[in-house]
Specification:
single chain, alpha+beta, 5 helices
Length: 97
Amino acid sequence: MQSDISKAQTIFKILCNKHRIEVIQRLAQKDRYVGELAEGLKVKPSKVSKQIAYLKKLGYVSGHKSGLKTYYHLESKNLPKLIKYVENSTLFPNRSS
């Protein structure tokens, strides 16, 4: 069983990568395939594949085949909520002044 600190480390590792966050946010909207994600994020499909593989290994993403494409599904509904919480957090100083 993973300790609470180990779980927190895993979450912070997930959230420390901009492309991973963007993949999570897009998969929270609907299931998508790598090419669709890459096009929307304006990055190479290999970069998206790397992030999908990481999230899949941790159990946060799963894939299902439809024809020749594999569509990926976000298994955790809490990750997008956590991202939104952090984005709206008052933990960070207001830098707009």
